[in-house]
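Minutes, project check-in

Agenda point 3 was the complex the collaborators sent over. CS summarized: two entities, 769 residues total, and the question is how they sit relative to each other. Sequences were read into the notes so everyone works from the same version.
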Amino acid sequence: MTFLFSSTPYADNSGDAFVTASIAEPSSLIPLFASDSASAQVSRLIFNGLVKYDKDLNLTGDLAERWEVEEGGFLITFHLRKNVHWQDGQPFTSADVAFTFEKLKDPSTPTPYGGDFEKVESLETPDAYTVRVRYREPFSPGLSSWSMGILPKHLPLRSRAPVGTGPYILKKWVSGEYLELHANKDYFEGEPSIARTVYRVIPDEATAFLELQAENIDFLGLSPVQFKRQTDTPFFKSTYVKHSFPAFSYGYIGYNFENPFFSDRRVRKALGLAIHKKEIIDVVLLGRGKVATGPFLPGTSAFNPAVEPSPFDPVQARALLEEAGWRDTDHDGFLDKEGKRFSFTLLTNVGNNERKMACEIIQRRWRDVGIDVRIQVLEWSTLLKEFIDKRRFEAVLLGWQLSPDPDLYAIFHSRKTKPGEFNFVSYKNAEVDRLIEEGRQIFPEEDRAKVYHRLHEILSDEEPYTFLFVPEALFAIHKRFQGVEPGVAGIGHNFIRWHVHEDQKKYKV
Amino acid sequence: MSKLLPLAWFIFLGGILLAAPFMVERSVTMDFTHVLEPPAWPYLLGTDSLGRDLLSRLVCGAGISLGVSFLAVFVSIVVGTLLGALAGYRGGLMDRAVMAFVDLFLCFPVFFLILAVVAILGPSIWNIAVIIGLTSWMGTARLVRAEVLSLREREFVLAARALGAGRKHLLFQHLIPNAMGPVLVNAVLGIASAILMEAGLSFLGIGVQPPAPSWGNILTDAKATLGVAWWLALFPGLMIFFTVLSANLLGEEAQKRYHL
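CS then shared the predicted structure for the full assembly.
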């Protein structure tokens, strides 16, 4: 394995290579089925959508040159680029878009993205470079759903031999070891400068870090400890550049509303007040994060800067709990009500050390206000299938990875509380439902933002989740890569413009 | 050496177990101003990533790790002895059925069986101990069966039977007590593997649940801070190493004594 990656790097003879580690093997590179992050990451290099997010998270054209939203949102017309070819040389046309849409709508296609296209009434292709999508009702998140990778109509779907329109072509996939992609010389935005990218499958974070130390990989996401302490050496400083930016995710505690403990708003508020969020960020994230106030990320248009984070106030927490009837009547140090002790289990998943540590800190803080909490760390699929899907939980500490569109339908709408759906806390609020639906029908960014600002206020006030923190994404990238521009959208947005100076190239043959 | 080390180590562990009740509070106290500090006064073995004293966590962890493995071994001996004695004494169909059951259990990769069971029942100290016990009784059952097979033909058993001893009396007063020698040896060796099993499960995060310390789950924390906090990996590693080594040496010594 080692010699493979040091002495005779990959079977090609031009340019440099970008080698990175993937924690898991991609399950499928076909965009329709690429639901895990490993798959999505590689798939994005091979396929293009009609639209994409730019550096500042504005939607711009990708395969579509431009688009128009007409008839108050009932109709979106995409005008496609004319100089685009599939990686096998066939021209890209609107027929491919129609084909991809058919696949998405086909109930026999096992895709998790079908729901994004449910509101589409019809899709027409008046000519080879125009696509008209008619919606049953105005649906603003629909626009970003067209960032879905478009599939070629003339080829069968082969997940291990994908052919797309993207900047890189899959050359080799050795199961359990690596995926190698080569630059697409005919890419419509120009040939990428980095000739090869290699995704090495390294399932263990500690091993991946050792590989970074040995300079066998060029890029790696880091944990806070690695970022702050382990990469603080002269070698690291001279070899890698470290970057950080707010991750597109937040950590939270979700309360099961079907449990009588948590249906009382005062109790949820008290639980939130008893947690010292800043302390969690300082200890668990080593300061690399912000206190979360709601389900939106600071800096996005949906985020309402007027919403204050709930303070750390155990005294008020106790007062609220007492108001809700929780008192320590038997003087055992724990609150009780009608003979029942305030005692529940906080669940989280195995393998995420930060979440486990957060649980332990929160357990102490809740203990201080008289609540008895047990922690259970469960294997991921068990946690989802046995506990969350079946609603057999009291509280969970988890995180949501967010998409740039602020729509909250899946997470907080009362119609999404069925088993397996994402409103697993069973939060039901008529005003929230109405606002979520309203937000999905408005197109202009500023008008939409108002709706989400109000939602942000309500969710912070009602506290169906205790929003904990927005962590920072931390990573190290090899110094020889030029042109890296970290933005709100991360660093992948201009990958094809990265380059290495001739004399610094590492992989030559 | 091979006799002294295990004895000294187990006496040392005994001392630790006596000290454990006094260190529980200290082992869960977090001091965020002393996070990941190397061994120094007042944290003699350093602190973990939540600023907890490693020494007191190791001491309390000893109670939990040893408790889980002793309980597991106890369960496996009770189950193994009963089934083995029954099979050896009754013979015939019962013997074949029990032995088929033993073979069946030996077929499963035990670790994965445990993973599956923990996933369903949920991890807790009791569950872990009982599950480890219920998946490691097969060796004991075979030993006891073999012993009982030979014992039941001996004269003292014949004598007891001639005096009118019942089945229960024979099994519990004569056969099982006389078969206990190899079982005890097996138990000592079993403790070593139970400790490793518990450490493995806790290391994977599905054994002893936080914030309770065990040697295995302290190692999990060590993995996340490898390269920063050597003390978090070294000290629990040494505890596991010496305990397993001592149990093995002791087991082998006993084996020699009993001429097994």
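Noted in discussion: Chain B touches chain A at residues 28, 30, 32, 35-36, 49-51, 115, 119-120, 122-123, 204-206, 209-211, 220-221, 223-228 (CB under 8 Å).
Follow-up: revisit at the next meeting once the mutant set is ready.
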